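EI: anyone free to look at a 208-residue chain?
SC: sure, send it
EI:
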Amino acid sequence: MSTNTTNFGGITEGMATVLAMEYESLRREIDIYHEHQKEFMNFNILLTIGMLSLVGAFLALPPDRSSNLNFTFLLFPLIFTLLSLFYTDRTVRIVRIADYLHNYLRPKVNLFTGQKILQWELYKCHTRIFHRGFTLLLDRARWLTFIFPSTVAVTIFCIMNTNPWTSLEIVLISIDAIAIFISLVVMFMTEETTGIHSISPINLDTLV
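SC: here you go
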């Protein structure tokens, strides 16, 4: 019998090869998204350093000139929030791939091999090495690298600006407050450290 037609639980060796290729492709995609996350984080750190350097530059200016430019600090939270949303987007993509691998691809591989394999997500859900609450706290802390500089930027503006707020500054502060709130919301909505829960897989074969 051809190796392409050898059947294991309804899955041929040819199908198993395709499953393995799909798994490798999705794992590479996850690696790419992780690299994107690192790039967003690095850019965020550089932006924070640039913002703090700007404080020294403004202090070196005459007070009448610097006061007209203080609103610049109110633009930083918008950029930090945008970066946090980009970061969140990559996290969502990673979690969705992990869910597909765990709840759709893994059962097929288990059926083919007759063994319980690819159990990393199950391990993350039930590991006793580190408390899940602690690892979740660390996962949440990543978003603080976007939220904390945003609050610092608004604080710097409030300290350096001694004049009454202009209409533009009031609008920017209001938008900044909304932006920081959005970052807080996505921080609590998105995480990838506690593992994907096992659920009944969608029958994708019936969806056309």
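EI: The chain has one domain: 9-198.
SC: 👍
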